[in-house]
Amino acid sequence: MRAVDLIRKKRDAGEHSPEEINFLISGYTRGEIPDYQMSAWLMATWIRGLSRPEIAALTEAMLHSGEVVSFPEIAGRKVDKHSTGGVGDKTSLILAPIVAAGGLSVPMISGRGLGHTGGTLDKLESIPGFNTSPTLAGFRRVLGQCGMALIGQTAEIAPADKKIYALRDVTSTVENIGLICASIMSKKLAEGIDALVLDVKTGSGAFMQKEGDSVRLAELMVETAERMGKKAVALITDMDQPLGRFAGHSHEVIESVEVLKGRGAADLRDLSVELSAWMFYLGERTGTVDEGRGLALKLVASGEALDKFRQGIALQGGDARVVEDYSRLPQAKRRAEVGSLAGGFLAATNCMEFGVALAMLGGGREKKEDQIDPGVGLEFHKRIGDRVTAGETLVTIHYNSESRLNEARHRIAESFQFSDRQPPAKRLIRRLVGA
Ligand code: URA
Known about the structure:
Distance between the termini: 42 Å
Structural class: alpha/beta
Shape: globular
Helix content: 40-55%
Radius of gyration: 21 Å
Strand order of the largest sheet: 1-4-5-13
Bound molecules: uracil
């Protein structure tokens, strides 16, 4: 078999056999197929799509590119959550400590920033010293000691996703249902969980902007989890505007800590509690989702979830003092305001553009080798439905370099739409799949 023939086959809308998909994935993981050939195959796949059998074969090949872990030494249920990604989406940092404080184990394998979205690993790495790539033994130890461990794909676990994810990020080959399903499910099925809660975003800041596409992706992922014997549910949630008030790495860590302290933005708190509640329910810690909500709120109010976050940071080598002293996190030196170009009710946002603007300021990657600037961020002052006067500040940009500030500022200003009438409130949770 030759990679060049498989690229041509997909370019010409052919369907791959499982053997062909295995050849591509194992060859690329071992370094025998170079980046340029995998990039070409990804683009052909993005354009031509994958059939259901191809998606199943791709998920299996990526899953078995590394170890499939199990934790027989850890009693109790293991549960996880994964989001398809959005702007300001930081719930993992909040719900992992809540759920671990509630007695379940959360072995979470996350990703870096992808496209216009931020990644959990990059956010955690803004905490000085935090190690997102421990050995498998280190992962086990941290999980056993505190009930949560947040790591990235490694050379041992989901190595194919580690490499392909980084390539998709910089080749505009992210927004494809089959590639997203295989990426997410290969990581999640490798981490030894009993149950999985999926947060599938929909709207202008999501990879799947139409609700129907988000539902299709959710159904595919729930079906894949169930085929592998895992309980799963997907929540289709709003991404027509950023989640919470901040986007950007340090800022999102601070906002997460605020929620763990019982404060923070209402939408972020509500979604974190809802996802935690489903994790408690699927993990059989509570008999109903409603009991799960009560438990999540109690663990925040008592400070137990915040203590768990501190413990988790310290065990992964991070400076847990950031929880009390936010100045220990990297901060941008300068600020600029973005004023509203019009007056009226804020009706909609082109939310993806906020993520692109943030990346331009250093908060994302345009090439695989790019370093993230964790201090840059966007602070959003208005939500859809708010009344705004022309010139009023909509966003504060926290930045370090002037080089692309104007371009970012224009993108942000032009990403708000206004109307004379107040738009109906958007529901944060649109639907459930697989409940
Ligand atoms: N999150 C992932 O882990 N992979 C994707 O492809 C998209 C979102």
